Amino acid sequence: MSTPRRSWPWALGRAGLAVAALVSAMNAAGPPPTKHGLLPEPIVTERQAATTTGSPATLPAIDGTIRPEFGSSQNEMPTVRGPYLGQAPPGSTPEIFAPGVLSLGFHEHGLAISPDGTEIFFVAASSDFSRFLIMTTRLVGGTWTLPEVAPFSGGRNDGAPSFSPDGSRLYFSSRRARSAGGAASDDFDIWYVVRNGDSWTDPVNLGSPVNTEKHEANPSVMSDGTLYFQRIDALGALAWDLYVGTRRNGAYAVPEKLAGPINTDANEAGPFIAPDGSYLLFQSNRPGGHGVMDLYVTHRTGSGGWSEPVNLGEPINSPFSDWAPVVSPDGRYLFFGSFRNIRPIVPTYPAYADYVTSRLGEPTTGKGTLYWVDATVIGASRPKEKTDYPARRERVTRARPRRPAVSST
To answer: Residues 218-274: pLDDT tens digits?
Structure first.
C-alpha cells in the first residue's frame, strides 16, 4: 500500500507553526495530488461548498450565547465566571469551546490550562496561516479577563503553548530571534517562560540538543521533565515525526525519534503526553483515518513500550482536519482544534473580535476553531492486559505426559 504524500496544510494544528516558514517552498512545488486523507487546493469539499456563505444552503451563524453573567449587551465587557469560562460541560459529542467568547474562527488551537485552572493560553492565527499569536485569559477575582495577546508573544510567530505539570513553566514554539536584536529565525525552536508571581520571565530558548537547524515545535512535558515534541527533519520535506528528550543531570540528552508503531511514513505531530507518561495523544494522516487529519492515542505497556495507536473514532474525528489534542489538568476533558465548523461565529463581545481582527485579519469559516469533549474515550481505548498466562502454563504442565522413571539398576 502506498503511503500518503506529506501534504500541507492538513498536518497543521499545533504542527501548523512550521507552515509560515515553508509556504514559499510548498507553493513552488504546486498543489498536492488527491490521495488517501489528503485534499488538493482549494480546500473545499462538496459538503463545504454546499454551505458556503451566500449559497441557498447557507447555515445560520453560531451565536455566542449571552447569559446573564455575560452582561446585558454585546457592547459591555462580559462577566464570565466559573471553571472553563463558565461553559456547560460537554458530553461524548464534541462541542465548540466557548463560542463567541474564546472561539471565533481564528484557527484557535493549542489550548493550555494551568494546573489550578485559573489561567488559559491558546493560539489564534490568520486564515492564511502566516501569523500566529499566543492569547491568554485569567481568572481574576472570580471573573475571566478578556483574552489578549500574551505578554511574551506578538513580535514573531508563536504557538503551541504547554504548561509543565506543576505550572511553573510554560513552553511554546517560536521563530523569534535567538539573541536580542537579532534577525528572526528561519526555523521554529522550543522556548519557555518561568512563572514569577503573577507574571512571566523573558522567554528562554531551550537550546541544544533539543533545538537544531530543523523545526522543533509542539512541546509537551511529563512531571519528571521528559519532553515530547515534533520535528521536521528537512525544510520543504514536511516529514513530521515525534521525538522524546529525557533529562539527565539537569540537562536534556539528545532526543530520540519514537519508533513504530507511533511514527510511520505519514505525518505524526501535535503530541500531548500525560503527566505520568501513561498515554500519548497525537495527530496523524496515516491510512485508515476518518478524515484529512485524525487524533490517535497510544498507551504505555507493562514492558515500558507503547501500544498500537488507536484512532479515537467518530464523532471526535471528522471528515475534515482534527488536531492539537490536549487533556485538561483534571483529566476530564479533551480539547482539540478542528476544521469541521463551516458556520460563522457571532462574537459575544465585538470589541474582542475587533482586537484580534486588527492583528490577524478577518476570521474564515472552515479554517479551524476549538472543540472539547468528555475524555473518557481515552481510558476506554486502553488495551486490556492479559493476566491469564500463569493459568495457561499450569494447564500445559498438567497436560504434558510424564517420562517413565529410569531404573538405576
So the answer is: 999 999 999 999 998 765 566 799 999 999 888 999 999 999 899 999 999 999 999
Check: CB of residue 236 under 8 Å from CB of residue 25.
Answer: yes
Q: Is 260 exposed, middle or buried (0-12, 13-18, 19+ CB in 10 A)?
A: exposed
Residue appearing with cell numbers 492569547 = 135
Residue 338: closest CA among 104, 100, 96: 96
Buried b or exposed e, range 110-148, using 16+ CB within 10 angstroms? bbbbbbeeebbbbbbbbbebebbbbbbbebeeeebeebb
Q: Give the integer Cα–Cα distance in Å for 104 and 346.
A: 7
pTM over 0.90: no
**What's the grid cell of residue 30?**
504546486
At residue 183's C-alpha, the angle toward residues 182 and 184, to 5°, is: 120
Is-contact 280 271, C-beta < 8 A? yes
At a CB cut-off of 8 Å and minimum separation 6, what does 273 contact? Answer: 220, 221, 222, 226, 228, 279, 280
Over residues 322-370, the pLDDT tens digits come to 999 999 999 999 999 999 998 889 998 888 899 999 999 998 888 899 9
- The SS3 of residue 356 is helix
Please answer whether residues 126 and 360 qualify as being in contact, where contact means their C-beta atoms are separated by less than 8 angstroms.
yes
Dist CA 110 CA 382 (whole Å):
24
Residue with cell 530520540: 256
Burial of 150 (0-12, 13-18, 19+ CB in 10 A): buried
Domain boundaries, the chain: 13-379
Contact 368, 107 (CB under 8 A): yes
What DSSP state is assigned to residue 99?
B
Angle at 270 between CA 269 and CA 274, to 5 degrees: 125
Domain formed by 13-379, architecture: 5 Propeller (2.115)
> How far apart are the C-alpha atoms of 105 and 346, rounded to whole Å?
10
What distance lies between CA 185 and its chain's CA centroid? 23
C-alpha cell at 45: 469539499
